[in-house]
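so i finally got all the pieces together for this one. its two components total, 684 residues if u count the protein bits. some of the lines might not be protein, just check the labels. i wanna see the whole assembly predicted at once instead of chain by chain like last time, that was a mess tbh
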Amino acid sequence: MATSTAASYKALVFDQTGEPLDVLQLKDMPPAPAELKEGEVELKFLQSSINPSDVNTVQGKYPISPKLPGAVPGHEGVAEVVRTGPKVDRLSPGDWVVPMAPSQGTWRSGGVFAAAGWHPVPKDIGLVAASTLIINPPSALAMLEIFHPLQPGDTVAQNGATSAVGEAVIQIAKARGIRTINVIRDRPDMEATVARLKGLGADLVTTEENLKDDLAASGLPAPMLGLNCVGGSAASAVSRILKDGGTLVTYGGMSMQQVTAPTAAMIFKDISFRGFWLSGRWAAAQGPAGRAASLDAIVQLYREGKLVPPQVQAFPLTSWKAAFEALAQPHRGKKVVLDCTA
Amino acid sequence: MATSTAASYKALVFDQTGEPLDVLQLKDMPPAPAELKEGEVELKFLQSSINPSDVNTVQGKYPISPKLPGAVPGHEGVAEVVRTGPKVDRLSPGDWVVPMAPSQGTWRSGGVFAAAGWHPVPKDIGLVAASTLIINPPSALAMLEIFHPLQPGDTVAQNGATSAVGEAVIQIAKARGIRTINVIRDRPDMEATVARLKGLGADLVTTEENLKDDLAASGLPAPMLGLNCVGGSAASAVSRILKDGGTLVTYGGMSMQQVTAPTAAMIFKDISFRGFWLSGRWAAAQGPAGRAASLDAIVQLYREGKLVPPQVQAFPLTSWKAAFEALAQPHRGKKVVLDCTA
């Protein structure tokens, strides 16, 4: 236990849903109490990420919502423990922690929280890995595990392979000997993108149009598991190469086009079309211990050099508007994060 | 053992795929041998049904196909045992039998088969129940069992509720205390159709357009299981009323329109879109003993008066062309069967 080191903290707050630039305000929060209660920790935030689900939360388009008014958004980030209240054995001042569950409000410089909601991570994985740890890599890990038991040599196919989850899928699959069939949009820097994904461990990188031919030429076996974050024809392309009994798992819909589930594929090829949401049934099924184990598995991959942190562009919390202006630029290629110490 | 009672049998035969009226021919088959081999039975067919999958088989559009040339179509029917070869203990002359597996060729007056491929049924269920036993009722039974564990009081929703499977679903669900939400097309004889389905045990009968309001007004709980044999908007209507974690199971595509699997429903409501095919993974998973048990369960429902046989229109095998001409009439409402004794 120690006394608070900060007179007060700042937080991005919204009182009603809307576009982030319209409804967010950076506000001074009430000072942390002199004495923490049982099970509480005071956290100083280091870096917090901005994910699509955060923007949707502020817009009121996400199923999990913080209580209005005075809501602080931010599902993901890394904080340092400043002091601990009575009966907090698991955490010590100076520890880095990440959220165990979404919607705790990470877009702030600090605050007081229930210790049970936070999980320690070692500092040697670095600030970027830690501040982007709890959503994309565990989503990739879970999708590779829960739908089909994949063995080394098996394949997984995905569209949107340059997305943060997509790149995590490539790396985690590679670490397990699972081979990846990656579909990306045709783009001006196609060669460089293919080279980058292959550098991460991708076995095949192709476009929707060339998928079938390139897969045949590659000699890779057809996958049981397909991952879709695009929808429309990009989803159909992946579903069409699945082995009988396979599953197309949708975790995003970047094209805003729905997925078609062809009747004959469902009936005669036994293809299933399912969804994945890290905060949905999966979270309920794995429970806190399972959640902690999956975060530790991601940390381990970082420590072994088998996961590379995403590229980020950081903005001081006090310059938060510039962060959301940057987000609005198309084809950024870098994840936007908030430096909560500035 | 006994000698053959028929000098020879006739069968509908096709040598190449195409429209049934173009490619089928009624032919005399070689006479049954004087001595049957071990495990063989000679069967005299009584009545065989014509299902959409039979027509698709003749057209070459079905995944299971008999060997050409000289193929005899017909997946379903009932036959009487004429005589048994050595080591056939399970069947006796005079027994009625139905196929254990599809594609044995039931559109014939008789022939010699492996006894293991046939399952005895009691005669008191009647010719119509027996000749339509192995496809639609077991499909309804399996779909009610394998996707979600339904309890008495739970609901199941389905479109195409006047189809043969749909009517079996209503009756089997009723026998188990499971309540049915049935979607049918608007039609001139709407009131009579609603009354008929309610007579079979339907709890709610409505149209795609009124489904949501009528379900709310009924006080019935939302279903975990939806059954779809239509596709398009009729599939979407059923998928939209499913409870979180529910499954839309497609077993047909009568509208020829594909199923849309909405991204948000898959991700945030954990709705799955799957297919069912009686001869697919399900058949492999249940094996012959499971298959026999499910046929016996259907027989039991008939004996208890909990299943009513479908309405049929019978044509003599020798007048088979009239049967296919009748099939081409829209909105028949009766299943077409072949009287194989005439």
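Chain B has eleven helices and 16 strands.
Residues 281-303 of chain B form the longest helix (23 residues).
anyway lmk what u think
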